[in-house]
């Protein structure tokens, strides 16, 4: 067990090594919330992280961009409201397409409603 924990600790240290510990904040903007609850903030760091968000009691819109450890540019935009959290980004997994036979079955169900029985 000790060897397992030691291996995991070494791997974690190796993965954490590509974090830029010397990153500096290049820009920072923070508009505190007003009487209606509207707010916004944004910042950018020297290692390429960019964050911005604006919101009010009804919802939030924001975006995050950074370079992954593999060197890939990651861009994520999102909204959050009474309907939930809605992220959008090319790096996010997407569901497979709905098979044609399912679409046909749904269309059939839509055009042929079930007959209601009298009680």
TrEMBL record:
One of its GO terms (molecular function) is structural constituent of chitin-based larval cuticle. One of its GO terms (cellular component) is chitin-based extracellular matrix. Residues 1-16 form the signal peptide. It holds the Pfam family Chitin_bind_4. The keyword Signal applies. InterPro entries: CHIT_BIND_RR_consensus, Cuticle_Struct_Prot, Insect_cuticle. Keywords: Cuticle, Signal. The keyword Signal applies. Coiled coil: none annotated. It comes from the Eukaryota. This is Pupal cuticle protein Edg-78E.
């Amino acid at each position: 067990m000790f060897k397992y924990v030691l291996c995991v600790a070494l791997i974690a240290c190796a993965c954490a090594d590509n974090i830029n510990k010397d990153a500096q904040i290049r820009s920072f903007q923070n508009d505190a919330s007003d009487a209606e609850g509207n707010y916004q903030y944004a910042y950018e760091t020297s290692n390429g992280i960019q964050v911005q968000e604006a919101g009010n009691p009804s919802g939030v819109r924001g975006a995050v961009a950074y370079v992954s450890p593999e060197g890939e540019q990651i861009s994520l935009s999102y909204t959050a409201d009474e309907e939930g959290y809605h992220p959008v980004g090319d790096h996010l997994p997407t569901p497979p397409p709905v098979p044609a036979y399912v679409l046909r079955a749904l269309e059939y169900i839509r055009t042929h409603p079930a007959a209601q029985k009298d009680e």
